[in-house]
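Lab notebook, bench 4. The sequencing result for the construct came back, and we need a structural model before the next group meeting so we can plan mutations. Quick request posted to the team channel:

Model the 3D structure of this chain.
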Amino acid sequence: MSGLSLVASRYAGALLSLANEQNIAATVHADLLSFQQVWSSESEVRAFLNNPVLAPGKKLPFFTAAFAAGFQPLTFQFFEKLLRGRRTNILGEVAKAYDELYRQQMGVVRVLVRSAVPLTETARTKIKEMVQASTLFKGKLHIELKESVDPALIGGVVVRVEDQQWDASIKTKLDSFKREFEDNPYVAEF
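Done. Here's the predicted structure in token form:
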């Protein structure tokens, strides 16, 4: 898993295994996505749960009030175990790792596309076809595009699929052209 700790990946794998046994992997995935949103957007929640001075017993009532009603019992019990085991510092990573493992299990490939202007439907279709044609992603059931507009690219697109990147932006081509001129091998003979 890219950029995630081994510990978080193992916890996420264990949770996915339990969720698969109970046929609730999709529901647990939804729980973790909502938790991940809170974790990444609410710095106070992160600070409170990561506070090493507070004992797990002090954090548990807050955690129960905030998440117990909205979570599947398995999700809540799993997070409660992490909280009691003083592993709250990896809660966000566990949620991300579960998301990656679940997407792999379901055959979903996430494609990040940056472009200078919003993509047209034709461009979206071509990008999906390009990814599906790749030998690395054959057999994947679903291509999920996540788009962002970056005017600094000037034109073209940058497509990122897992650990691979295809850069067809004008900015990159101009930068490359500029480097060629900076590395001028010409030596004047005078």
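The mean pLDDT is 86.
Will bring this to the meeting.
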